[in-house]
């Protein structure tokens, strides 16, 4: 007769037998030894009297209960409770350094750990090369108070490594120095830009249960960006927003739907990003509402964007009694009040307003344009920029009230990935300890180490050797080491940005010197390129135009680029498409007519007017009636130009 074996995935116990604590049984045995009856002692400690009588017999025969087991032992369990506690700690630390385990990686890690420590495992683990899905789900249920499946937030490597204790301490030292100059909470401001696009993130909707896919309408595949720059201070006040539209000219209709007091600005290249010219204009907008003066100066906190630290901005800020303090690079997600507590609700309200606009009946089938964005900001701005959100942002970052210890040490764990040892050191102290028990960054708590498990030294037949362990022969970190950056081989020459008081004289002078050096290098590069072009036009190889060290002095004088007449240069620019030997007869005829019918001055002045593009500004257009080009220039020259244009086609 064959019996079928049924596996129960979720077994539920129907009795409380064997569920008592070690301490309760030891207390009941002690009561019996003091003269109390077994039934009364069992009732006092809420244990079974038959089980208590068995432990009393063991205690009377052996004299101790140190080696006795309490409760039912779990059969077919790969890892003990103490081992699983260490696995839990490993998984938590991996998530804290932004290298968390997925459920598939957890199963693979459990198999490698059991194999590396020669533990008894099910046959299916060896056949599949990974732990079973049942084990992973049961493991998560057993430790549901410590572990959970979470969707991580995408964090760049720059943000992960730059937010470290060193950079944060530098920022708080500069902030302490600035606050020592007498700035109150009403004078501490934070400004930052954020982008508002014409494509929103749809909100949750009510749909049929069990539907595989639920869609929501958006404006287009890829939206258009409009930059919104806002400012808040530590007592909860805010200033009207500053818009940068991807247009050259500003339209007056944008002011009608924008928040009161808003300023609209265009972009010289119609990209919608903040530039130095736009930020200087924003600083004037900021002075209008912050009202800094000699008696009431202002401390302004901002990031290290290149448009924020130009010389024009620094000079304007210093003239208007504004002290600029910059955040460390890639740390604004933790140190900036606007990013911490204001822009999150602001984007949520923007998405809700965009959804409402797209679902209105009269907007069916329409695409959202940038002309709608001011009205969306008008809806979201008063709801997000509340006093509670603004003050909580300054408090959560430790800016006001000032608290340099606002961030616990656990928040700096992701930056430990790039804690490189020095390349010159070869001793053991420079090598990061791979042990989960001895590493200084993440030591194991003493209460999770099994006191009853003896120390086992790994044998030669095991895959990991060389260290003494309490729970595992090979620790979890030896099986799957934590991410650690290798020592840097070459030192980079790139200068790293840091938190600075930008308006202080030494810092401002250094920025001016860097700007002058950059201008000199650009000028030198342009001169070098122009010399190469002149040399190539004269038929000289490019190598001879770089330096004259490889030729004789007399030849170097002849090889120096000579200034040519404007007419010659202009004619060469006109005939630049084809070499002189490959010119068709029509081009040669056009060049001959040009030389015979016009002098160099007329050619130069008329050739500058050749494109005849319409000016962008109405003020630059010539007065009407305007004469055509064939009435202004010479007829012969015009005919030559027509022949030249026809030959190119």
| Main sheet record | 6 strands, mixed
* Low-confidence region ranges: 423-469, 542-583, 597-612, 629-633
- For the record, the CATH class of the largest domain is Alpha Beta
What's the N-to-C terminus distance? 96 Å
What is the helix tally? 24
In spatial order, strands of the major sheet run 4-3-2-1-5-6
Topology:
Elements lengths: L21 H12 L4 H8 L3 H14 L18 H16 L6 H14 L6 H6 L4 H10 L14 H6 L2 H15 L8 E10 L27 E9 L8 E3 L8 H5 L5 E3 L10 H15 L7 E5 L8 H9 L2 E5 L5 H4 L1 H23 L13 H12 L2 H10 L59 E2 L10 E2 L6 H4 L25 H33 L15 H7 L6 H9 L10 H13 L2 H8 L21 H4 L2 H14 L1
Describe the structure.
- With 649 residues, this protein is α/β, with parallel strands linked by helices.
- The chain folds into five domains: 22-62; 78-162 and 419-487, no CATH class; 167-201 and 222-329 and 340-401, Ribonuclease H-like superfamily/Ribonuclease H (Nucleotidyltransferase, domain 5, 2-Layer Sandwich), CATH 3.30.420.10; 505-559; 576-610 and 622-648, no CATH class.
- It has 24 helices and eight strands.
- The strands form two sheets. The chain has a six-stranded mixed beta sheet with strand order 4-3-2-1-5-6, with helices on both faces. A two-stranded antiparallel sheet has the order 7-8.
- α14 packs across α15 (373-384) and α20 crosses α22 (600-607).
- The longest helix has 33 residues, at 505-537.
- It starts with 21 loop residues before the first helix and ends with a helix.
- Mean pLDDT is 79; it is low at 423-469, 542-583, 597-612 and 629-633.
